[in-house]
Amino acid sequence: MAESYQVNMETPADGEKATTVVKDDLDNKDESFGACSWMLIGLSYVLVVLFFPIALFVGVKIIPEYERAVIYRLGRIRDGKAAGPGMFFILPCTDTFFRVDMRTMSLDLPRQEILSKDSVSVAVDAVVFFRVFDCMASVNNVSNAVQSTRYLAETTLRNILGIHSLAEMLGDRDSLTRQMRSMLDETTDEWGIRVSCLLLQHPRHPLPGRDARRPRLPHAPDALHAGRDDRRVGHPGELPPV
Fold first, then answer.
1. Nearest alpha-carbon partner for 187 in 10, 17, 20, 16
2. Dihedrals φ, ψ of 57, to 5°?
3. Which residues lie within the region annotated Disordered (predicted)?
4. Chain mean position to CA 227
5. What is the model's pTM?
6. How far apart are CA 168 and CA 186, in angstroms?
7. Most CB within 10 Å of its CB: which of 19, 57, 143, 199?
8. CB–CB of 100/139 below 8 Å?
9. What are 16-68's pLDDT values in tens digits?
10. Strands 67-73 and 86-89, sheet pairing
11. Angle at 180 between CA 147 and CA 100, to 5 degrees
């Protein structure tokens, strides 16, 4: 039965500065709209007044406590921050928004077959728990934050375990999980994602028929077998060896 090993990761304290690219971009950009943009925004407000009941039904959005909404107005982030939880209003013609789930999510990585440093094939399963701590970065800095985190975790798992021997995988898993978490955080911090827990299953012993250390005997030539048979049988009339 496979054993499991869990390492809990601490979540950064409130108010800790997030290292995200999107915030730096927002600070350096001029957030004012041009004349055409203001005309479209004004026209949208006029349409809201003219079609008030319909516009109210379309424009009012409600998101729960565990979600945030990143709102764009004419392709630019509105108000420089996320909206929610609760009720907010978007202009039907100029505003769009993306929902971001702030709860802890899990990724069950598929079984990875890894060749260790001492040339042993092992199979390892892992589960990564993570949460979004910067919803704006998770939308602006990566196209699909969850899928990208999955691919990154699979690659990191293979890279870390591939440079260690089987004995190190079995005996020093605490250090291996710390290395994996550190490598993951270097990239996911820019995506607004923080790995909160990593569950690394006990590496299995070499798979049957897949052990790279097992020597493979070459096929002997037919002539060699024939010579051995001749020595074994001998010449006609000769007594076989005792």
1. 20
2. -65, -40
3. 205-242
4. 60
5. 0.66
6. 24
7. 199
8. yes
9. 444 444 444 444 444 567 888 888 888 888 888 888 888 888 889 999 999 99
10. unpaired
11. 30
The predicted-structure confidence for 191-210, as pLDDT tens digits, reads as follows 999 998 888 877 776 545 54
Pairing of strands 95-101, 67-73: antiparallel
Specify the DSSP class assigned to residue 141: S
Task: Tally Cβ neighbours within 10 Å of residue 196.
Answer: 18
Encode pLDDT of 89-119 as tens digits. 988 888 999 999 999 999 998 888 888 788 8
Alpha-carbon span 198 to 196, nearest angstrom = 7
Distance CA 94, CA 72 (A): 8
Q: What's the pLDDT at 118?
A: 81
Q: pLDDT tens-digit profile of 123-165?
A: 888 899 999 999 999 999 998 999 999 999 999 988 888 887 8
Evaluate whether 113 touches 123 at the Cβ level (below 8 Å).
yes
Classified as helix, coil or strand, 94 is coil
What's the rounded Cα separation, in Å, for the pair 52 and 56? 6
